[in-house]
Amino acid sequence: MAAAASTISGTSAMASAAVSSSSSSPALSFRILSECSKSKARTSLMKLPHYTVELPMFMPVGTQGTMKGLLPGQVKDAKAQIILGNTYHLGTRPGKDLLNDIGGLHKFMQWDRALLTDSGGFQMGGLFPDLRKISLEQLIARDAPGYAIGGLSGGEEKDKFWPTVHLCTDHLPKNKPRYCMGVGFAVDLVVCCALGVDMFDCVFPTRTARFGCALIDNGQINLKARDFATDFRPIDEKCDCETCKNYTRAYLHTIVTKETVACHLLSMHNIAYQMRLMKNIRESIKEDRFVDFVQDFMACYYKDQSYPQWVIDALAAVNIILKK
Amino acid sequence: MKFIVEHVSKQGGRIGKLTGLRSQPDVVHDTPLSLISTVGGSAPHLTQDVLHLVVGKDSPVCVPAQHFSEHVKVLQSYRRGVAHFSALQGHCVCVTAQDSSKVTPSGYNDKSGVSMWTYRGRQSVSIDKYMELVETMQPDWYEALNDADTDSASSKKRVSKSTAMSMAYLKQCIDHHKVAKGLQGSALFAPLLGGHSEGDRSRWSKSLAEKLEDTSIISGYALLGLHTNGPPTEKLEPESMHNLIKASIDPLPADLPRQAAGMWNPLTVLKLAEHGVDIFDSAFPFLVTERRGALTFPCRLNKTLTDGECSKNDKLEHRNKRLKVCEDNSGTKMCEDNPDTKMMCEEKPKTKMCEDKPKTKMEEEENAKKEDKENQPIREKEATSPYEINLKDKSNVSQLEPLLAGCECYTCKNFTRAYVHHLANVNELLAPVLLMMHNLHHWMDFFTSIREAIKTDRLEDLRSLIESSVLESKEA
């Protein structure tokens, strides 16, 4: 049912990995469609029992068997293909026996696309390269269907974060999906895709929605700000989510953090935003213009090309030089 | 606004057609109907696309002026009215002064205006401010500004202040309405006031014809001043309201619509409908949602059991589950018809329903009064009512049935009680969404039944169906 995932906390210099671009196991089969000619980015298909997911993919988090106030249909409309549940939480409430009686988590929450469950709380070799290496080697030897890079979402510094991801993706087999947990900011997603990551999850889009923040191409806007009181545009004129089709920033400003409807409207938009970002990434890789995509994205995100050093370094490590 | 009374029933109530509205000149709405109550311009918990899974895209909504009293300038810049602003264009809008779903604190109305509470606190709204606000909202119909700060405990002085101030406001509203370009096509409703005094109510209603120079400008009436909004309204019982409603409504011309906003419980709604009230709101289903309840009171006259319940009665292995439902005040009739369950019920000393022979109407009424006064202790200290089940109740933890068997709403067609209980239990935002969808759907079904019952002169039967299920729930 759920894609099995193993954690990685270290590696050792790996002998040349298999050069095949696909892999198969009972629950999951994976096939690379295209690769970026410069960086480690790739776009692939991951076939799961309930759905075939296009990668790289962002997974919104539905910890307790629900996507934070959204109906399953709304999550689908936002183009989500796979969402994350939490076995620890769900194992406690409502519990394993009840879920069995009902016929599984998919039926319980009426989500007919893919579900990934994890149990959270992954601890690990952390940011120490040698420990990561040891752990990686052992895990690869176990031949899991896919690999999860954990222990990196605790707010550690970015310039320690990206080398760890880079190390892991260098040593993990190319023909299996790599899942980096807890990564959700747009810039981080783009960089990690360049580093060869395929899957991400984060509570960020839905959590920030509850604080009144909407995601747009150059960051976030906080709809509580008075600037929006008479701004009759949608959150994003280019966005085709239900929120942007029907609601203005001015209206959202009147209810944000006050009515639950505001949470739902912003969550829907933020998930749709993440999905659109991932789609743009995938399309650009398919057409081998990922490097240009990254360049444009960063230029839009950082005014006056004030790129953070870690972003410059991480991208340079995979042959993408940001123009100044 | 055009209102046509099509049928007046001998058992009480009338069927009407509401049409010719400013924003929907050709749409016809059948009455009695329920407006969709909103908070901050949206149905509670429901985004526009979700709301449209439950109700029609042109259904009437209620927007309290109170919710937009800080947004006059924005609405003026926007220029397309509050429905459009709130992504509810296509729906017609009734603007009331106050929000019927929240208690209006008492004692704050004075010469400077009527007090309205916003997120930021108390605002005193003068007649000029009110009319300016209403104009920007572009309502299809609206209440004149009124001081309705009266309830069963109000002093004579308070009641007379409320009527004096409100008459002054009404006259000023009328004057303003006549010249306001922005209110062309909007219909003005006069308040019906007088606290809990039959004499005052009757005098007020009569004075509307006598004291106003031009009564043709009044398009309808809003029954106010019987409560000060919010949850306490739920506790008002039909029998205690009977004479007061009669006093307010009897002197009125029959051809204009009457509206009664508030968290009235279903039996009181029927009482109001019986007296000729045409328009209600959905504050009660909102109240039920907030306490994680799901409405389950029977509201279909033709069958006492829905299809789902009929088939369950035959399966003995469901006995235990049925008993749980009994305890949960689901309001469904089961034990009377099935000797198997009757036995199970008799084992439990509390449930008397099976042992009782059919009572006379008098006896039932006596019992109902007794029940009310004794104030049944509520299990687990959860607020609830005989019209609903509480989804926080642990007995729902493994219930694989829907909230209400046979219900065709989105929630009941897709999810189980167990899932909604889980959501309520872990405080997830989806719980009130699914419950609001069900409760609003059930409420709309209720009103369809009311119209059917009045059309076929069976309002009394509908009342008695609901009343007996309420009695059973209270005894369980």
From TrEMBL, chain A:
InterPro entries for the chain: TGT-like_sf, tRNA_ribo_trans-like
Gene Ontology biological process: tRNA modification
GO cellular component: cytosol
Superkingdom, natural source: Eukaryota
SUPFAM superfamilies: tRNA-guanine transglycosylase
Keyword annotations of the record: Zinc
Segments forming domain tRNA-guanine(15) transglycosylase-like: 39-124, 125-302
Claim: Protein transport is one of the keywords in the record: no
Gene3D superfamilies: Queuine tRNA-ribosyltransferase-like
Protein name: Queuine tRNA-ribosyltransferase catalytic subunit 1-like
Source species taxonomy: Eukaryota, Metazoa, Ecdysozoa, Arthropoda, Crustacea
